[in-house]
Fold each of these.
Amino acid sequence: MAATSELSASLEDYLEAIYHLVKEKQAARVKDIAERLHVKAASVTGALRALSERELVNYTPYEIVTFTRSGEAAALDVVRRHSALKDFFVKILLVDEASADSAACAMEHSVTRPLLERFVHFTQFVEDCPRAGTKWVRGFSYYCDHDSKQDNCEKCMRTNLDEVIQKKANKGAQAMTEQQLGSLKPGQKAKIVRVALADAASRRLVEMGMTVGTMVEVIKVAPLGDPVEIKLRGYHLSVRKKEAEGIYVEQAML
Amino acid sequence: MAATSELSASLEDYLEAIYHLVKEKQAARVKDIAERLHVKAASVTGALRALSERELVNYTPYEIVTFTRSGEAAALDVVRRHSALKDFFVKILLVDEASADSAACAMEHSVTRPLLERFVHFTQFVEDCPRAGTKWVRGFSYYCDHDSKQDNCEKCMRTNLDEVIQKKANKGAQAMTEQQLGSLKPGQKAKIVRVALADAASRRLVEMGMTVGTMVEVIKVAPLGDPVEIKLRGYHLSVRKKEAEGIYVEQAML
DNA sequence: TTGACAAGTTAGGCGCGGCTAATTAACTTT
DNA sequence: AAAGTTAATTAGCCGCGCCTAACTTGTCAA
Ligand SMILES: [Mn+2]
Ligand SMILES: [Mn+2]
Ligand SMILES: [Mn+2]
Ligand SMILES: [Mn+2]
């Protein structure tokens, strides 16, 4: 019954597809999975049987498909790998969205956990470190076209450094009071200081790394504030309004 | 006859293994290929048939295996992808050699050409740009352990910048005369200014990107100067002494 | 109520890439 | 030269993941 064997790349893609379909529409229909993965319906049925044998989805013929506990966790894991790699490709390597997406989906299956962590950390490093910052990486574009114009690089470096010092000087003025995650606007970063949620609701979030001390960035807020899309530890995550209200943060200075 | 279909990850690994065995020992024996890939001998025979059908190796039962023209090119391509990814993992993500190696071998099959180019360029960018340089990336290590100690980052940035300016001031003093590739010592970088080789000998090198204007770095030189291991365009390459004598370079300043 | 039709499943087939076991070829020894 | 040893090949099997074709099931409109 258990079955903890490694998932094949193919099955991981099925999990991923189901995850996204459940999120977009309410349920994951066989036909939609098939379309998404460019595969015939019969193949989907086979995959569902395989996932069901591994107890990752609850599946009986003709009935609706749902994730099991471990199934949802496994799906989240794939989605995270995909999104972390894509982020790296887009933000650091400056690859266009579409290419980054397909590349991420191809490589997500062979990247190990420690290596992924490195990718995530590196992306964060470049974003956070004053010498770097995503702005700096744009110099990479220039570098790609011309051959290593060092003068230009150097000038850019100085400008960047000055900006950082400027910002730092102003930081004392900023408020550092606790506020709800939902009150942040897109682009703002903050650190989690308290999580007050029902057990059931918080499980998923904790699994995604929503713990005290973690830095989060709000990516976008849907029309009525539900859901809020945030990024933490390099991964994207959708948080329902209710949940966002139970998460208290403190804004970073920089 | 033709058969230009995409190579499977498995067949690419066989090509890679054969390539390295031919380079290390003179020939690639079935048993050695099997050992290297953790596979049984019977599987190797099957793979050799498949490669032979695609005209990538010359193979008749019980006889020695050699690459065809296109086979060697295909093998080189895999080896390049492997080495470029590994380089990125080691130099930028600061992963240990062994992990980098296995990760590279896992991902080399799913990375597209344009994305690989990005990896290569980015690694070069970090190495060449004065604001960065491999030395800088070591700050990443520190960043991984502590959470974004920005003060430290900033200090490091200043130091680095000063060093660059220092070096730059001295550059006028350096000689810029043409010399043979073989005369460089490990660690030195130079730009190719002239290639004087027999057609047959130069084909392989040109395929690897050994063209006028390209930057090369000498990695190591074997006891008697043969072969010379160099890196160009982010890839590693072994050059025979004879060949190295026909390649003229000019040292870079920085 | 009852077709008609779309969605889903089952059955069976195929290519790939491993494997084992049995066979054959190529070398070594005696 | 014959026997023994190691390397390589063949034959045949299996699991995976896709496919097509034929079938069930569910739904909705006449
Ligand atoms: Mn994928
Ligand atoms: Mn994916
Ligand atoms: Mn490989
Ligand atoms: Mn490899």
Amino acid sequence: MSWTDERIDQLKGMWEKGMTASQIADELGGVSRNAVIGKAHRLGLQSRPSPVKANDAPRKKPVTRKPDTQGAEPRAAAPAPAAAPSSPTRAEADTPPFDTQDESTQPLDVSAPAPRPQQRIVSIGPGGFMRQGPGDQQAPIPPAPPRRLVPAKPSPEIADKTSLLDLTEKICKWPMGHPGEPDFHFCGEKVNPGFPYCVEHCGRAYQAQLPRGTRRPPPPMPFGGPRVR
DNA sequence: CCCTGATTCGC
DNA sequence: GCGAATCAGG
């Protein structure tokens, strides 16, 4: 399988939706998990919460790969000049998608949030409510960061539709639309007893449920793919 | 063990 | 550019 534009598009979409590389590979079919990861990196889609990334240790381990077929090692031994052992080598692994401030201001000082001595925080908005008793002497939590708050938008458009909070064991959880879109909601029908979906969507969900590794040509799954609606 | 993503490097 | 092999954390 080759990476057609469409497949790349699907990969991007799924990757950004948080699907794991295995799921994506399985969904696309014809590619391995490694292929997905490799492609994602080549595409520049980088670093989502990864299990192994927190460490800063220089991983200089000449792994012996391809033990066979190569009589001599053609690679010239790279004289890795161990430059700065203690300095933070790489840029921070996964910087949140917030605006990066000018790095020239402070080299590295995240420890001090500079709390106002006199200011007393009594509460923060609905998103991060916090209290402080009369005897409290210090603000244990830094003031509400100037984060860009995403307003919870209960769009009237979905007022009568089934939202995430409306889901129970009895109603169909089949997603309608795409997450993040204003009209994203769930089916909401009465479920097929014993299944998370209604009868109709059970048909969609389980029809092409073939054993792992089996190619699935183009099943009308609710995620990924071009947005045809 | 399973899973995950990251990285390397022969092709 | 691709992806198997490998690494490494959970």
